[in-house]
Amino acid sequence: MTPRIAFAGFNLESVSSVPQRVELDEFQRVCTRGDEIPARFRGTNTVPGGCMAICEAEGAEFVPLFHTLLGALGPASDEAVQFYTRELLDGVAQAAPLDGIVLFLHGACWAEGYADVERHVIDSLRAAKPDLPIAVALDYHGNVDARMLRGADIAVAYRHSPHIDMGETGERATRALLRMIREGRRPGLAVARPGIVIPSIMSATSLMPLSRIMAEARKAPDCDISVMAGFSYADAGNTGMSVICMDWAGQTSAEARALEFSGKLYDLRAELSAAVPVLTVDEALADLAAHPATGRPVVLLEHADRMNDSTHFLRALLEHDPGPVMVPFLLDPESAVQAHAAGAGNRIALSLAGKSAPETGGPVAVQADILWTGQKSFTVSGRYQQGSHVDLGLTALIQIGRVRVSVVSHFAFAVDGDAFTIFGESPQDYEIILLRSKTHFRDFYEPLAERILVVDTPDLGPANVQLIPYRRLDTARMWPWCKTPDNTKKPETGEVK
Ligand SMILES: [Zn+2]
After folding, report:
1. pTM tops 0.90, yes or no
2. Could you give the CA distance from residue 11 to residue 109 in angstroms, rounded to a whole number?
3. pLDDT at site 1
4. Which residues are in the Microcystin LR degradation protein MlrC C-terminal domain (predicted)?
């Protein structure tokens, strides 16, 4: 018998404090359905790509329902959560008979009307299909607890950040699901939480001591351990780090291993929270002034920007003029329209970026030379999401003094060379590159950059998580508010089913 494996993906990382809700039409703009999914994702380094590859390799039938993925933005609208939950239930009903499903969820999607969006999606499916094997593939930045996964049989997450293992994660989920179907038994599944909140900037898996813990987790035999960074900018009861263990030796073993790795995180909580130095804008400018250009670009990371339109550091670069600068993928649809109307070869006044929230630093008044405008899209060449399609919408390449900016209409992170090659340029053409990615830029830029300066600005995603105004997370029980959280010696764990 050929097992029929459905696939559905609903994926958003939500910064609770971003004022713009992500409405249904934003998800719909990037949603692919049915046969479009194999056409778009076969052979790509993505979760559907990995799921499809294992189905084809192991003789299972891949039954694609839908896939929508938006990266990191604000809260999802309640309507969007309801819409895709409904579509999931309808899709599963219409695709019957099914032998299992792979659900691709983030883990840190946040919506005003839902205490836990992913739990709602999983529980809704479990209520409709009590016996359907459900495998969940999560983002490493998901906020997870045992209640979220109580309806799942299998749960795995990315084990690299940058997420260069998205395809592999789809493969791990699908391989485990097919094993469960074949052997007629589910693995043990446990979640342990060490009570730690870290900013995204510290979650890069190349940083010590996290890199050592991740390497140990990836090597564990006959079980699948996902160490989760969590996402501190989503305000939920389960915000924070966690460990998911799926273990074929059974539930007792799963719980013991989840606790073991949770304990490793707990013991290193202070080091995990301070894995890279964080500079002020003035300290970063002083660093640039103190070091002559080497021919290799310095990467500045304005990491606290959550909507790709912050202007704190752009303003400082325009004032201090430290050298040729590229600012890729600055989000400002309004300026893109104005630049396009003015046309290439002209100079116009722009009120540039800084429009999504007061914390972004506000718009900068500039005189910009228009170098190029038009619709822009590309296929990702870097390992992170390799092969995926990115649509920037109406785009303008503009020059302000020695600062060049690509102004885009759709939110996208500049994480690899594509942000340059789409304009016939290369990162080495610049002395300074101003990025807004948190960890995903590292795969491409660590080997290439002269150095990486992480800069903190008074914005929506501060490095100091104690500045985040939590309403749902009980911070009194968490590091760094509490130096020795009580729950950490006996981390919360629990049988998932
Ligand atoms: Zn992530």
Report:
1. yes
2. 7
3. 84
4. 308-472
